[in-house]
Amino acid sequence: MALEHALLVSLSERAGSGYELARRFDKSIGYFWSATHQQIYRVLKRMEEAGWVTVESVAQQGKPDKKVYAVAPAGADELARWIAEPVESTPTRDELGVKVRGAAHGDIDAVRAEVARHRAEHARRLEEYQLSEKKFFPVPDQLSGTALHQYLVLRAGIRAETGYVEWCDEVLQALRPRKGDHRP
Amino acid sequence: MALEHALLVSLSERAGSGYELARRFDKSIGYFWSATHQQIYRVLKRMEEAGWVTVESVAQQGKPDKKVYAVAPAGADELARWIAEPVESTPTRDELGVKVRGAAHGDIDAVRAEVARHRAEHARRLEEYQLSEKKFFPVPDQLSGTALHQYLVLRAGIRAETGYVEWCDEVLQALRPRKGDHRP
DNA sequence: GTCTGCATGTAACTGGTTACATGATTAT
DNA sequence: ATAATCATGTAACCAGTTACATGCAGAC
């Protein structure tokens, strides 16, 4: 049940509406815990019922009302409790891996093309992360507190994307057409 | 819907029962697509109804009967179709990342201990993978076909675990207690 | 006599996705 | 006109987890 807690982390930094949270999740926390707006709305409702967050309806001009959520004391307690609790490492799920593994039972050219496509996507994301790193954390040695923690998860993203891109290259190298291959 | 297809890949290599598949999934394919036996049983049933696999009840001595599943022509077609189809990259989900990100709202010592625990687990798995690499793929340059594809996903596992361990080290280094910190 | 391995399953639940709906405002 | 952005939601569905049940064989 990490979504609840991811939302609590985000709301601890700044109160916000479901919509805003959904967009924050496209960055930072969303790098390693994504969520759709529907999911977020539902979970926020549940959290409100549990007393973990408080809501305040805010009227806006020209825009629909929004419900601004903020962390309640019970939510802060819950977050602290959860952080101290041990977690199992989330199992990996990678469809592209399944395809590479099963490549012999399908069109190898198609698999290679897919890997190339994913390589491009991950490389793009990596660049984005590296840009953020330069821009927001130019002197990482001096970071502390939340800024340091933000930096560390960005580093996780950078490492993950770097590794993925390298793996794609290895696959593309290994699956490249060779003499003796004959395709119709 | 990758589980169906992961099962088809596994069954294409060798027919087997749900139980056997569950254990095969603890290795190789399971490195990046895990599944419980219940999940596997359910999906196999669905696949049988769809005509993707055939079943044969096999009596055994001293052991309960087992249902041996094999890929049907429709299943092979479906697998080939799916392999050629583009996939979105599976979003990352990492609870430990959420904890590090929210470390300021909980007990930093506990987070550090968690990271250390996960580091150990991933290091252990990495060693396991590296052992498999040495044992089963001592001369990777000469691989082709399914053996090559198996090797490549093992490489994915090795890269992922290596990266994770390195990241844990980076976090442990960054979150180590420093002068000026005062905890009760 | 207790535990592990083989082998299959039901039932209840939780977490997450997809599709659809509404309605105003601003930018092209 | 039309699309995008802001903002919230319902409903149906799918995927995956957890708990429980059964029963025999062989090892310790």
From TrEMBL, chains A, B:
<dbReference type="InterPro" id="IPR036390">
    <property type="entry name" value="WH_DNA-bd_sf"/>
</dbReference>
<dbReference type="InterPro" id="IPR036388">
    <property type="entry name" value="WH-like_DNA-bd_sf"/>
</dbReference>
<protein>
    <submittedName>
        <fullName>PadR family transcriptional regulator</fullName>
    </submittedName>
</protein>
<dbReference type="Pfam" id="PF10400">
    <property type="entry name" value="Vir_act_alpha_C"/>
</dbReference>
<feature type="domain" description="Transcription regulator PadR N-terminal">
    <location>
        <begin position="7"/>
        <end position="80"/>
    </location>
</feature>
<dbReference type="Pfam" id="PF03551">
    <property type="entry name" value="PadR"/>
</dbReference>
<dbReference type="InterPro" id="IPR005149">
    <property type="entry name" value="Tscrpt_reg_PadR_N"/>
</dbReference>
<dbReference type="InterPro" id="IPR018309">
    <property type="entry name" value="Tscrpt_reg_PadR_C"/>
</dbReference>
<feature type="domain" description="Transcription regulator PadR C-terminal">
    <location>
        <begin position="92"/>
        <end position="176"/>
    </location>
</feature>
